[in-house]
């Protein structure tokens, strides 16, 4: 089932929610309406117990070229303006800067992934790109600052010198270079990123949903802790939350019975 506005398509298929930035005429740049719908989509992914993983992609061979300053300058639709007034943080939630779902997101990148496109990419967990994709955080080339979180996130995800290179030069890099420095995890033939992302999303969705959420929670919450403190915190997440669940019993039972497990999130 596909929902949403023309600027952002939201499709549910089983346990997977696919969010498609859909402004190909503007290289899928963020519009006010797209941001509103994205904030709603991430809230849906977080709260719906039937959804286990998300996919973020762009329409017609392009991921995202960042913020559409012309669209912002042109004013907002009334419903968007009303929501923005109610929640001034809405756009940062949409860009996954001030909110992240409790479930993982797989990025499927084709074509341009620049500025805000590369910034929202950093909030996804598993990243696939077509071999002709290009990446850049080009704000400094325009005298701007990348407010989507890149000056904080990027140096925690890739080597400091590589992060500094991208942030300070604003230069564009290929998918192969992005994989070499650890910005993305998979490079596939152009046009097949979404197919590969769905394959990976299905693997995630087939796992115990409580276990996946707990692993993701532990990864996020221990990332900046000293090792001893991180290991202690990991124990508080993994042992009491997971091992007494029905899913934790179903997994070993299914293995012993040589059948696929049926996880219910209980």
Question: How is this structure best described in words?
Answer:
The protein is of the alpha/beta class. The chain has 2 domains: 2-205, Alpha-Beta Complex (2-enoyl-CoA Hydratase, Chain A, domain 1); 209-256. The chain has helices at 32-47, 69-73, 78-86, 90-94, 116-121, 150-157, 160-169, 175-180, 193-205, 209-222, 227-242, 246-256; strands spanning 2-5, 8-13, 16-21, 53-58, 105-109, 112-114, 126-130, 134-136, 173-174, 186-188. The strands form 2 sheets. The chain has a 7-stranded mixed sheet, sandwiched between helices. Strand 3, helix 1 (32-47) and strand 4 (53-58) form a beta-alpha-beta unit. Helix 6 runs antiparallel to helix 7. The longest helix is centred in the N-terminal third of the chain and has 16 residues, at 32-47.
Task: Please give the domain count.
Answer: 2
> The CATH topology of the largest domain, please?
2-enoyl-CoA Hydratase, Chain A, domain 1
* The CATH architecture of the largest domain: Alpha-Beta Complex
Order of helices and strands: EEEHEHHHEEHEEHHEHEHHHH
Strand arrangement in the largest pleated sheet? 1-2-3-4-5-7-10
The counted number of beta strands is 10
CATH homologous group name of the largest domain: 2-enoyl-CoA Hydratase, Chain A, domain 1
What gyration radius follows from the Cα positions, in whole Å?
19 Å
- How far is the N terminus from the C terminus? 26 Å
Cα shape: globular
Show unreliable segments: none
Structural class: alpha/beta
Q: What portion of residues is helical?
A: 40-55%
